[in-house]
Write a structure and sequence with these properties.
- This protein is of the alpha+beta class and 129 residues long.
- The protein has two domains: 64 residues, Nascent polypeptide-associated complex domain (Ubiquitin Ligase Nedd4, Chain: W); 64 residues, Ubiquitin-associated (UBA) domain (Helicase, Ruva Protein, domain 3, Orthogonal Bundle), CATH 1.10.8.10.
- The strands form three sheets. Strands 1-4-5 form a three-stranded antiparallel β-sheet, with helices on one face. It has a three-stranded antiparallel β-sheet with strand order 2-3-6. A two-stranded antiparallel sheet has the order 7-8.
- A hairpin with a 5-residue loop joins strand 2 and strand 3.
- Helix 4 packs across helix 5.
- The chain is elongated and about 55 Å long.
């Protein structure tokens, strides 16, 4: 165990850290086709031998659904044209984490935003201000 710690310390000393300036946004494309968009990020590259690690932090994180057709998989429209939206647990967690509210409050905000996490986050943040 001590040997592992020593090796880790040695590797950390060799690691080269450099900030990446001027990043406007970072987009992470998921296999589902959705995208996580981080606006105004701070990006740091850590090089450890042949590996590169990117650390990304940002205040504005949004989840964008890939296409309107896929959004219909989670929403149905009733006969009186009022939209009923099924809200995924991941979206509730994302909104709660980004705004510091309870899961229940995040769920209510998502319902009001018709299932759109970005709108729910913005609405909750504007209430705090």
């Amino acid at each position: 165990m001590r040997r592992d710690r020593r090796m880790m310390k040695k590797m950390m000393k060799k690691a080269k850290t450099e900030p990446i300036e001027g990043a406007l946004e970072v987009i992470i494309r998921l296999m589902s086709g959705d995208e996580i968009v981080i606006s105004n990020p701070q990006v740091v590259r850590v090089r450890m031998g042949p590996q590169e690690i990117f650390q990304i932090t940002g205040a504005s994180v949004t989840l964008q659904k890939s296409t309107p057709a896929e959004a219909l998989d989670t929403a149905t429209v009733s006969s009186d044209e009022e939209e009923i939206v099924e809200i995924p647990e991941e979206d509730i967690k994302l909104v709660a984490q980004q705004t510091g509210v309870s899961m229940e409050e995040a769920h209510r905000a998502l319902e009001e935003a018709k299932g759109e996490p970005a709108k729910a986050i913005l609405a909750l943040r504007s209430k705090k201000d």
